[in-house]
Design a protein that fits this description.
By secondary structure, the chain is α/β, with parallel strands linked by helices. The protein folds into three domains: 233 residues, Rossmann fold (3-Layer(aba) Sandwich), CATH 3.40.50; 173 residues, Rossmann fold (3-Layer(aba) Sandwich); 69 residues, no CATH class. The protein is 34% helix and 24% strand. It has 18 helices and 20 strands. It has a six-stranded mixed β-sheet, sandwiched between helices. Strands 16-17-18-13-19-20 form a six-stranded mixed β-sheet, sandwiched between helices. The protein has a four-stranded antiparallel β-sheet with strand order 2-1-4-5, with helices on one face. A hairpin with a 3-residue loop joins strand 11 and strand 12. The chain is globular, with a radius of gyration of 23 Å. The chain starts with a strand and ends in a 7-residue tail after the last helix. The structure holds adenosine-5'-triphosphate and magnesium ion. The site of magnesium ion has 6 residues, from helix 1.
Length: 503
């Protein structure tokens, strides 16, 4: 079969980093081509070059046999190459409809035709099964909805090549199935799709071929059916796989569990969360499970005070945490690693080291001044342990690959060593090795007495990592599953509304 797109010998360097070296990459019409590799392997760089967001230093590209070297994203779009990038490029303050139709809002003889715009936006979302009020600001919707909206916007244009850079990082279950349905439809129309993900389960489900990058080099390209999962991971890591160093369930061995670090009574807010009672013990990992919009993230936001609570109390070690002030909550010993790292987490222009020590600085300064040396040593240690890949720790955070930003963000909270750490989707965009290391770190901190709340849409992650799980449904905690009964099956049943949880 002849290639629709071809890249030959693409190279790209950034100060101190060779992001791509002489990479060949080919796309056939009507194929889903998975692009795999560890954090920092060069995946996003490659697709940014293909979509005109970045220029290669060397090499050439062909689209349908003709020379292709887009000078901008717009130029690439005109040639039929569209992309959904890892870091969603939407404007939260604007309505869903405006975001979907940005630059293409339908006009009437004077001004914008809002009725037509809303109708068009609803049409665009229909294939994704999203029936939402498109006149509302995008910011009001969960990350997963925002992610689907970006994809809807990208495929609304006629495209021959569609790049999806981690489109499923915030999607679970039904969202993924819906997306895959849409992708298969495009494939049937002859569109070539590049699909980047860190969810190994998804690769074989959706892709026809797989290309693996390692340290900026192409390792190879395989028919998906001919590459087993173990081989895939081995090729990504560049070594044969030994049993993954998965830490055991946090399991601070019995005994210490009795005194609670976090005590929540009647925490609620109308329309956001029904009254929640919860205690988290020293060294305990409590999972928050539930479908999208079930209230798990909202509960975290009320605990830390990102959202103002309507009622209830939160105590850390018996000390009350004031409402509505994340600063005060952090001082009281709480930490929240948020779901949306771009909006609430990283500071893109600040160095990696500063991003890591941002919160801990207050702790380090306890004796009147911040020792720059202590700060750097801390940043260096955590970056090393979590495997943050960066040219050095002085480069701006925005130059790190997505997964490495996530690791650095997590390092920030680990640096602060809070009494209770709430992690909302901490593995988002993190590669296999990174996941194992993060799990190890969390288990270590729990052993040292920290209480952990782990929010995740990955049921297996909750089942494997937590000592106890609270199941949320329709914005209320509908049940608690104790460790003995904590299986994926029990979680699914409780989330869906069957038995398996105590009402
Ligand atoms: N604008 C930039 N300035 C400096 N370095 C950069 C820039 N963009 C990327 N890099 C570096 O290039 C390398 C490849 O990054 P890239 O984003 O392509 O990785 P990735 O494979 O997409 O990883 P992830 O799975 O974490 O998203 C990384 O070392 C990254 O730090
Ligand atoms: Mg990337």
């Amino acid at each position: 079969m002849s290639a629709l797109f071809e890249a030959r010998g693409l190279s790209k360097s950034f100060p101190g980093v060779r992001a791509l070296s002489r990479v060949d990459f080919e796309l056939r019409p009507g194929e889903v081509h998975a692009l795999m590799g560890q954090n920092g392997a060069g995946k996003s760089t490659l697709v940014r070059i293909i979509t005109g967001a970045e220029r290669a230093d060397g090499g050439e590209m062909l689209l349908a046999g003709a020379g292709y070297s887009p000078g901008s994203v717009h130029e690439a779009q005109l040639a039929g190459v569209a992309a959904v990038h890892q870091e969603v490029g939407l404007i939260p303050r604007l309505s869903v409809a405006e975001n979907l139709l940005l630059g293409r809002l339908p006009r009437k003889w004077h001004g914008i035709d809002w009725r037509a715009a809303r109708a068009r936006a609803r049409e665009m979302l229909a294939p994704f099964g999203l029936d939402i009020d498109v006149a509302r600001p995008l910011a009001e919707f969960p990350v997963a909805v925002r992610q689907l909206a970006t994809i809807a916007r990208a495929i609304a244009r006629d495209c021959r090549v569609l790049v999806l850079d981690e489109p499923t990082s915030s999607l679970h279950g039904r969202g993924v199935a819906t997306l895959f349905g849409v992708v298969r439809g495009l494939r049937a129309r002859g569109v070539a799709i590049v699909f980047i993900t860190h969810f190994l389960d998804q690769v074989h489900v959706i892709s026809d071929r797989i290309t693996i990058l390692r340290n900026g080099e192409r390792v190879g390209t395989w028919e998906a059916g001919s590459l087993s999962r173990v081989e895939l991971v081995s090729q990504m890591l560049g070594r044969t796989l030994v049993a993954a160093p998965m830490a055991d369930r946090a399991a601070a061995e019995g005994g210490q569990r009795c005194d609670s670090v976090l005590r929540i009574r009647g925490l609620a807010r109308a329309g956001v969360l029904a009254p929640l009672d919860l205690e988290v013990g020293r060294g305990e990992v409590v999972g928050f499970a539930g479908l999208l919009g079930s209230g798990r993230t909202e509960a975290a936001e009320l605990i830390i005070g990102v959202r103002n609570r309507g009622a209830g109390t939160v105590e850390v070690h018996g000390r009350p945490v004031p409402a509505g002030s994340p600063r005060a909550a952090i001082d009281a010993g709480l930490g929240l690693c948020p779901e949306d790292r771009q909006a609430d987490g990283i500071i893109p222009g600040l160095s990696v080291a500063d991003n890591i020590t941002l919160v801990a600085r207050r702790g380090l300064a306890r004796w009147g001044f911040v020792s720059r040396r202590a700060e750097r040593a801390l940043a260096r240690r955590l970056a090393g342990e979590l495997g943050v890949k960066a040219a050095n720790l002085d480069v701006p955070m925005r130059t790190l690959s997505g997964g490495n930003q996530q690791k650095a963000l997590l390092a920030r909270w680990l640096a602060n060593a809070p009494e209770v750490l709430i992690l909302d989707e901490p593995m988002r965009g993190v590669d296999v090795g990174g996941k194992a290391e993060i799990e190890r770190q969390i288990a270590g901190l729990a052993r040292a007495g920290m209480g952990v709340v782990l929010i995740s849409g990955e049921i297996d992650e909750i089942a494997r990592r937590s000592d106890r799980a609270v199941v949320f449904r329709d914005r209320r905690a509908v049940g608690v599953i104790a460790r003995d009964g904590l299986t994926e099956d029990a979680l699914v049943r409780a989330m869906a509304g069957g038995e398996g949880g105590r009402e």
